[in-house]
Every structure is written in structure tokens, then in C-alpha cells.
Amino acid sequence: xxxxxxxxxxxxxxxxxxxxxxxxxxxxxxxxxxxxxxxxxxxxxxxxxxxxxxxxxxxxxxxxxxxxxxxxxxxxxxxxxxxxxxxxxxxxxxxxxxxxxxxxxxxxxxxxxxxxxxxxxxxxxxxxxxxxxxxxxxxxxxxxxxxxxxxxxxxxxxxxxxxxxxxxxxxxxxxxxxxxxxxxxxxxxxxxxxxxxxxxxxxxxxxxxxxxxxxxxxxxxxxxxxxxxxxxxxxxxxxxxxxxxxxxxxxxxxxxxxxxxxxxxxxxxxxxxxxxxxxxxxxxxxxxxxxxxxx
Length: 295
Prior knowledge:
Elements: H1 3-15, H2 18-25, H3 29-43, E1 48-50, E2 55-57, H4 59-82, E3 91-97, H5 103-116, E4 120-126, H6 129-138, E5 143-147, E6 155-171, H7 184-187, E7 191-195, H8 198-208, E8 216-221, H9 224-234, E9 237-241, E10 250-254, E11 260-268, H10 275-285
Parallel strand pairs: 3-4, 3-5, 7-8, 7-9
Antiparallel strand pairs: 1-2, 5-11, 6-9, 6-10, 6-11
Helix pairs in contact: 1-2, 1-4, 2-3
């Protein structure tokens, strides 16, 4: 299975049209069709549902799309790691992070590191903790910022001193909007969106106690932005960290009693990494992450 053919496949999957994909790839349509047929023969499965004016992916096709994107991303990352200036530290460092205010600590360290090594650049990948851990394992992310609970046994890690404060995002016209804190009992009376991450749900369950089973959970989310806009229609609340983000029609109200969560910067132990990523990890280990370093 050639990387070039996987890149062809991803273009066809994106465009849903072989003729258009062939033009974008600067190859002929028969050549592209032949490559796709050979790929199906090699894998022993049908990847496409072919219709008159478009194609769609089968279940196996969707699986290959995910795997092909991971392989292409890893190949691109590897090329960038070897593309460095003679005698100077250069390259790209991939950082994975969820939506937390603790990213300010990591951002501060990255800015200081870049001042020392201006040829080093950073790529930021925003996602859930589970996705970031998966990408670290696959070598697609060099360093991750994860919110606890996290099993740090298989990682090199640094604990961030700042705690993430839990609360809810509610519409500005909500009865909760003007309160200094929202209680378990008040939240048990309204529809909620909560994190999709099971470990986080367990942490929230401990805070709610017996009331957790009484909650009206409308759904789950992985990143906050869309969940906040969903509440504009449902009129409920989104359980989340305090981000300081400006939302036009929503405000943050902290939980009462308070609930806080820690964060850790992690990287894979004993990994073979690029010189730039290795140097940055060393820099992080020697960085004093005191509270006054926050942005």
C-alpha cells in the first residue's frame, strides 16, 4: 500500500467525485480509477458506493479514511522533523490540548522557547483528552495538555499548579445568570449537556451525589463552543470549565460548593522524537510552572 495512493484515496473521499479529484491531483481520471480499483483488490474489500454523479464511502471505506489520514499525517510530520536548517534547531512541535485555561502555562513556555529557537514552530491540535492520548501513542502529537483524572504512569509529565474551575454556561436571560454560584439542587431542575468523557462524568457524579441520577441530561459534548449554542434553544446549561471566553448570549456561573480539576502536561515515555520536540520537553522539565506564569 503506497502512501501516494492513500493520498489519492483521501482526495477522492473528500471530493466524492473521481473526475474532480483527478483534476485536483493532476492525473487522468482512468489512472485514478485504476489506482482505486487496485487498492480495493489489495485490501479485499469494497471501499466505495458508486453512483451516477458521486461516490460515497462504505463502512470499510470510512475505516480506511481514518487510517489513511493518520498515516499521511504521520508521514508529513516525519518529513517536517527532518527538514531543519544546518547548525540551528528547527522543526515543528505538535501540541494537543483540550479547552482549558491552563493552556496559558504551556503557551508561555512555548513563547519563551521560540525566542531561543526562532526556527521552531508549533502546531496546535484541539480535541478531547482521549483523542489526544491516542494521538500521542500514534506519534501524531508530541506533547499533550490533559485535564485530570489522568493515568500518568506511562507518561513523562509536569503537573500544572492552576486548577480548572467547574461551573455552567447558561443563557444571559436564565434565572441562574446573575448568581454567584449554582447548587446541585438547582441543576437537578434543568436540562443539561455534560462532557462525553466517562472519567469526567464520574467526577461530576461524585459532586452531585445522590442527585446525579435525577439529572435531565439532554446530551454530551466533546468541545464547548457548539454545546453552548445548543443551550440557546434548549434553555438549559452546559457543565464545563471556566474558560473566560466571550459568548454573546451566555455567561459562566461557578458550582457551589466549588469543584476544581487539575491539569498535566504529558509526553510519551522513552519515545524517539525530533530534536525540536526533545529539546522542548527538556525545557519543560526545567521550567518553573509557578502561578505567576499564567497568562
